[in-house]
Amino acid sequence: MASPTDTFRAARDLLLEHRTDYDKARLAFAWPRPERFNFALDWFDAVLATETPDAVALRLVGSGGSESRTFAELSARSDQVAARLRRAGVTRGMRVLVLLGNQVELWETVLAAMKLGAVMIPATTLLAEADLRDRVDRGRVGAVVARSELAERFASVPGSYVRVAVGAPVPGWLPYDEGRTTDEPFMPDGPTNADDPLLLYFTSGTTALPKLVEHTHASYPIGHLSTMYWIGLQPGDVHLNISSPGWAKHAWSCVFAPWIAARRSASSPTSGSTRPRCCRSLSRSG
Question: What does the pLDDT read at residue 280?
Answer without folding.
Answer: 29
